[in-house]
Amino acid sequence: MTENFYIKKITHYFNMYDYNGNGVIEASDLLIPAERLTKIRGWGPNSGKTAVYIAGIKQMTIQLIRIADENNDGVISLEEYIKYWVGMAAAFHAGNEQVVTMLQAIALDTGNMLDGNNDGKVTWEEYDQFMRSFRDDMYFDTKAAFAILDLDSNGVISIPEEIIQISQDFLVSDDPTAPGNWIFGPISGTDVTLPAE
Ligand SMILES: [Ca+2]
Ligand SMILES: [Ca+2]
Ligand SMILES: [Ca+2]
């Protein structure tokens, strides 16, 4: 049951990233949302901020494809993605220090991507802008999700404390009640769904 939950969560994560919905993650799937985000933030296409952000996403994409693309066809299938994350979660829970450190780095990268004005705090507006950069049909009630992710309810997701906790929850926890499950919104086919109005 809980393993099933984890696989559903990783499948949801995969679907968020598969921007064109063709069943594999390729470089353009990450670049299109990145470009959308710079527009949503009002950064000009030739601005330094846009250049730095896009370069960071390109670097991240190359790394992701390098580590998860098991059959070396240049794209990540759902099967490859699940296998990669199941392995990462197992290593994390076994106390593998390299993986613990790697997950912290991923959390900080995620925090930096979310933190549009780079002040070490993610506001709801910043979180909402980030989620709007993904496919329109994946958009969800970000206010409800943000309230759960803001663990101490002070109005912001702090970097590094809260972002490390919720990012780890999302990436490696099989606990359906972990607050971090909400990062990418409701997970279809699970109890991580929005409360009834
Ligand atoms: Ca592949
Ligand atoms: Ca901020
Ligand atoms: Ca907080």
List strands and helices in order, with pairings:
Layout: H1 2-17, E1 24-25, H2 27-40, H3 48-68, E2 76-77, H4 78-93, H5 97-114, E3 121-122, H6 124-132, H7 142-149, E4 157-158, H8 161-172
The structure holds calcium ion (3 copies).
Structure description:
The structure is a single chain. With about 200 residues, this protein is mainly alpha-helical. The chain has helices at about 1-15, 25-40, 50-70, 80-95, 95-115, 125-130, 140-150, 160-170, and strands at about 25, 75, 120, 155-160. Strands 1-2 form a two-stranded antiparallel sheet. A two-stranded antiparallel ribbon has the order 3-4. α2 packs antiparallel against α3 and α5 (about 95-115) crosses α8 (about 160-170). The protein starts with a helix and ends in a 25-residue tail after the last helix. The model has no long low-confidence stretch (mean pLDDT about 95). It binds calcium ion (3 copies). One calcium ion (CA) binds near residues 150, 152, 154, 157 and 162.
